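Extended Data, panel c. Modelled sequence:
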Amino acid sequence: MFKRARIAAKSATRRSTIAGRVLAALLAASLLPAVASSVEAGDPLLAYGARIVGDDARTRIVIDFDREPRFSVHYIANPERIVVDLPATAFGFPAKDLAARGLFKDIRYGKMDEESARIVLTTTGPVKLALAKVQADEAGKGHRLVLDAEMIDKRAFAELVKTQSWSDRTEAAQTTSAIPAPEKAAPGDFVIAVDAGHGGIDTGAIGVDTKTEEKQVTLAFAKALTDRLNKEPGIKAFLTREDDEFLSLSQRVLIARQNHAGLFISLHADTLKQKDIRGATVYTISDKASDKLAADLAERENLSDQIAGKETVAEPPEVADILLDLTRRETQAFSISLAESVLNSFKDQVGTINNPHRHAGFRVLQAPDVPSILLEIGFLSNAEDEKLLLDEAWRGKIVGLLTDAVKRYRAAVMANGG
């Protein structure tokens, strides 16, 4: 029923003829709202521009129309798709401008019948439109449809499919959170995202003696820490991954933000060429690395997406916004406070490397509004550290000390009105 709209660009030299003037008038009528307002109601909308940006955690589609479109959104399973229904529409932009990327592996659009058109977005997995709205174009050329897609879990997507109505054509223009907050979280709870580094095809480091994979070590620590934190009143922790699955760095950040996390703790157990180096290290984010060791580690960790063949996408333009920059600075200060609290807990209890608080440009710590740390619990490249990392009793000790650090951090934040 559908076919990709393909618009072949044609150009020809036209002199000042009557035909040329008529063509110019028709083009102006399709773009200028003053003229468009007089278009008969039965004429189709003109979608004259489109663009798509984002990655495998968040993807935005913007489509420019000559006048305001009414639309509705629905979800279809097996495979997962998002359907956007429109009135009769002529799609007048090059197909390459809306080529699939990010969360979408196929995008099709076209005429349904004389009165309707449809856009079908086939997704890479469970996805929801966290934002779907129409807004006036600032340049006065009509309106634009903005669709912000975000990943969700399978259960949430199944609920969307089950509860949606296909009769209400106004239900789409709602702004909602794409992933619900942790089920057990209550108002006022201090929510913590515990991130088990690596997973799936990305095994991470390999133990020097036992050949244990880092992804197994981090998940064991993350589960233990989450269980321990959830025993504390007023604290609710959740895992970014609960089993051996791959999550891109941006997906981990998004999961923390969507669940309104007040802290993000990413757990790792890396390897170093210098096998004699051992002990814990706490990292916070910074544009400039504190030292070569931190820079090298950040570079390796940031390659996680490439291991799984994921495209690394530049930050969207809004990251330059001055208010967002101020938020980042404040968040960075909280991240440093958390790092110091962890190291205070570890003092005389857990061995650390020299200068144990370091910083570098870790992509997994890039949430602008969630204080975040990356904790290297130890190094799998060191035989002694490897033994400790696999010891259940030592894991319990680390988890207890981290819980104490989180409680002190939370108490300080609450005391300052946070």
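Confidence is low (pLDDT under 50) at residues 1-40, 168-181, 314-320. This feature is highlighted in the accompanying rendering.
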